Amino acid sequence: MAGEEAAELQALGSFSALIGLHRDRTTLDIHPADGVPAVARLTKVGPLRKRAAYELFTGPGLKTPAGQLSASGILDSAGTPVGIVNLSNGKVPDADIHPLSGGLRDYVVDNPSHWRVVQPGLPALTGRAMDGPTKLFHNAVTDATDKIGIDIWAPDYFVTLTFKFSAPGCEGFTVVLTSRKSRLDVTVHDPRVDRRLILACLAALTLRVMRHPRRDILDGLPLWRPGRNRKS
Length: 232
Hints:
Helices cover 17% and strands 31% of the residues. It is an alpha+beta fold. Strands 1-2-3-4-5-6-7-8-9-10-11-12 form a twelve-stranded antiparallel beta barrel.
């Protein structure tokens, strides 16, 4: 269960993640409700697709370190694994997934219906598309295009996508992703699920599923600063 530094986060039954995409950093601010200050922040150096772990901060001013995470899982503030998100569709065993290996490995698939959220003491939660629009963009056809490297863009930018991660004996949680608002909304159905592990799943959804023109632009920009290439 979450430590003291993440107690406020763990108490949330629902929350939203607002994504900030910048050239020099990527952030996810966690809000209990609209108009309420963030209770946690994920931040990493560089644009979204940079291979770097997020730092999780909580507490007053969001200055208390509460762990490190990536799209594949999370370590708590002491460096102990909290859980993993297996994005491989069974190609890699859960035991071989490191929490900080990230979501840019060759074995990663883009369809959350093939992901597993694994927390010790709970059954592994598997993803499921929950409505028609979500199934339209995450199905056998899109799986096939993913395998051969064809990226079908655009239409899912304009719709909300809903995924539920659950298992027999654990109702898990539901995520609604709205690309055009750079926002993810979470409803927790089982209080045993560690909210920090849910944040790792949100990092995976942001990386592999979210569509946003700003992300594609920033991914192509070099990390440049005035004077960086200036001769001394």
